[in-house]
Every structure is written in C-alpha cells, then in structure tokens.
Design goal:
The protein is about 35% helix and about 20% strand. The chain is an alpha+beta fold. The chain binds ligand EPS.
C-alpha cells in the first residue's frame, strides 16, 4: 500500500511529508525532486511569494546510499518566508503575545476561511487559511516526484500541460507527446500552443490590472500504462474514481474529466465508445480512438490515460468582494492578502504529481513487492502473459 500525509502551514517553519510503501532499491534523485519543486514555482501570474521561496526537499529518512530502504520516506521543505512570520506563526507563541489587530476576521468568498472558522471554532481566520493555502501542494509535488521515479522504472511517462486559461483554449490535439513536452518547457505558462499562450498572458495582465484573478484547465496524460490497473470490483478500487478524488483535492479544483468527460454525455454511444481491434502478429487488442481516456470499468485498458482538471480563479482578490466580519458581523470587503493572479501553471505540476502518485499506487497494488527487483519480477511475469493474448 502506497500512502502519504503532509504537514505544515503556509507561513510556518516548513512543510513535511511521510511517504510509505515505496519498495526498497529505488534510486532517489534529489535533483529530480527539486527540479519538480522548482517547476511548480514557475509560471506567469504568480505573486511575490515565489520570489522569496526556493523550494528544495531535504530527505530525512527512508533512504541510504541514494536508494530507498522500503521504510517511510520523510521529505522536508523549508519555508524561507518563515523568518518574516516567526512572531505570528511560531507554535510556541502564546495567545497573549498575538495582537488583536493581527487577527484576520474578513473571510474571502471562495476560500476555506468562513466554513473552516465555524467548523473549528476559530476567531482568527489565519488559523484556517494557513493550512488551506496551496502552499501545501509543494509537499504533494515532492511525493509525486518520488512516485514518478518509481513509474519511470517501468517506462511509464506522465506529461502535463495547460490547455485553457481565462477562457482562452490551447490547440494541441494534433501534437505528439514529445512536441508537447518541448513546447511546454519553453512556455511561461506550461502551454504548448504559442499563439494561445500569448492571448493567455494578455488575459493575465488584464486581470492583474483589474485586481482580479483567473482560472483554467490542465491536462495530464500517462503513457505506457499496462492494461489492468485499478479494478471494476469495488467503488474504492476504480482508478478513475481515485484519480478524480486526487485531482479534486487540489486547492481550487472544481471539476475533473476523464477522456471525453462531460462531452460523452452529449453524444450517442456509437460516437463515444472506442471500437476494439486485434493485431494477431502482436497478440494485442487495440483501439483506433481513445475517448474513454484509457480507463474502462475503473481499469486501465492499455491506451493513454487522459485526465483534465478545471481550476477556479483564486479567491484572494486585490479588489475584494463583499463579506461579513466574523466577529462584529459588519458588512465589509473581504481581506486582501498577497496572492497569485493565476496559478494554473503551478496547479498543472501539482496535478501531474497527484496523477503520478495514484498511478504508482495502482502499480504497487497490482505488482506488489517489498523491493523494486521483486516488483519488476512480478511485472515482467504479468507482461509476458499479456504479450501472449
Ligand atoms: C496562497 C497565497 C500566496 C501564494 C501561496 C498560496 O502565498 P502568500 O500568502 O505567502 O503570498 O503564493 O502559494 C505558495 C506559497 C506556494 O508555494 O504555492 C494561498 O492563499 O493559497
């Protein structure tokens, strides 16, 4: 079983995560993890905070001689901004040391502020927003990077791209994965369509000037996935359900699609389902279309796994919306915090990490193994059976 927890507040000392279930013998490249962390920090439309942070993961346990031990892996990411927040955020600061004027009482519509404060009986919204902040996603990206390293051992590739920002759509359907990767890595927005990127940047500039924020859509594609990950037998083993949950749990995500997604509800069945063919020389079943997004009945069918997630605009607005003070009940404008105008490129990297984790978890469940050697042996035996269908 692959599982993880994260801990940490946005302006606390650090973010930490414990990841369990990675088999022993996986080479853990700190460079790769740090590279993914930096990728999450980039992207046009981010705020000043990203100029302060330079995320890197310290590996505290579960690794020796550069390889995993099969024991829990602890990763720690320090918040550089902590220095500026210590007097407010140090766990040992006493209530009497916290000034009344530092308390946040004006909840932002669309944020966890109000519901969280009522649920946890808090009179200072900071006690909610510090943990609900998308800063936490740095830890998820570190976990996803480790999962990705495991997937790479089986030549499974996870690629993501921004496909829409503020209503501007990218057109990349006729590009190969390699071309998408190349163009995406050159893009300030992680978007492989140059013309669309230009329009997206203009939209972000406009939103910045207007004190507003923008959302968008990203896509994650997984290639070289073996047939048979996930299962049809139980609700919590269906891979599409798990992917949707993992993506929906990312801050500000409001919708998830697999393959054709919502569009499949508008077409007749004959124009939705992917017809089945058989290549006798290769002993292989295959499809000419992939509208199912690589998953049927909660199980991978050997085609590309294709998922998309929609992110709402960030709720912290420079020109704030109406709200109500949680203490005085006065009508007020919502709190204005330093924030990002558009974090879709960052969310794309987080989405990729979330998908990598779920795919690695499904691989671990199917092929088991306490060591990577054992897992690969089980995988090879199954793939031999699949190659002789
Ligand atoms: C965030 C608000 C901003 C973002 C932050 C998420 O932080 P701050 O309030 O310190 O300016 O920059 O994102 C990150 C710190 C990050 O690493 O992604 C929020 O309210 O969710």
């Amino acid at each position: 079983m692959l599982r993880y927890l994260t801990a940490g507040e946005s302006h606390g000392k650090c973010l930490a995560t414990i990841l369990e279930g990675i088999p022993a013998g996986l080479k853990l490249s700190k460079e790769f993890i740090d590279g993914e962390l930096r990728r999450r920090q980039s992207g046009y439309g981010r705020g000043k905070r990203m100029e302060i942070e330079e995320d890197e993961a310290e590996i505290l346990s579960g690794v020796r001689g550069g390889e995993t031990l099969g024991s829990p892996i602890t990763l720690l990411i320090r918040n550089r901004d902590w220095e500026n927040w210590q007097s407010l955020m140090d766990p040992l600061v006493q209530p009497e040391d916290l000034k009344e004027e530092d308390k946040l009482t004006k909840p932002r519509p669309g944020h966890a502020d109000l519901a969280g404060a009522i649920k946890y009986s808090q009179k200072d919204l900071r006690n909610i927003l510090e943990r609900s902040s998308a800063r936490e996603t740095a830890a998820r990206v570190a976990v996803g990077a480790v999962a990705n390293l495991l997937l790479q051992e089986f030549e499974i590739e996870v690629v993501s791209q921004v496909v829409e920002i503020g209503g501007v759509k990218a057109h990349t359907a006729d590009l190969t994965m390699e071309k998408i990767l190349k163009a995406r890595d050159k893009s300030k927005l992680g978007c492989a369509d140059k013309a669309a990127e230009k329009l997206m940047i203009e939209k972000i500039e406009k939103a910045t000037k207007a004190g507003d924020s923008l959302g968008g859509i990203f896509e994650v594609v997984v290639a070289n996935v073996p047939i048979g990950l996930g299962s049809h037998v139980h609700w919590d083993r269906k891979l599409d359900g798990r992917l949707a949950q993992a993506l929906m749990s990312i801050q500000a995500i409001k919708g998830v699609e697999i393959g054709l997604g919502f569009e499949s509800s508008r077409r007749p069945g004959s124009n939705v389902h992917d017809e089945i063919y058989y290549e006798s020389k290769k002993h292989q079943f295959y499809r000419k279309t992939n509208r199912a997004g690589g998953i049927e009945g909660g199980t991978t069918n050997g085609e590309l796994v294709v998922v998309r997630a929609a992110m709402k605009p960030i709720p912290t607005l420079k020109i704030p919306l109406q709200s109500v003070d949680i203490v005085s009940k006065d009508v007020v404008k919502a709190a204005v915090e330093r924030s990002d105008v558009c974090a879709v490129p960052a969310a794309t990297v987080v989405g990729e990490a979330a998908v990598a984790f779920e795919m690695a978890k499904a691989m671990k469940e199917k092929f088991g193994g306490d060591s990577l050697t054992e897992m690969k042996r089980n995988y090879a035996s199954y793939m031999e059976y699949v190659s002789k269908l």
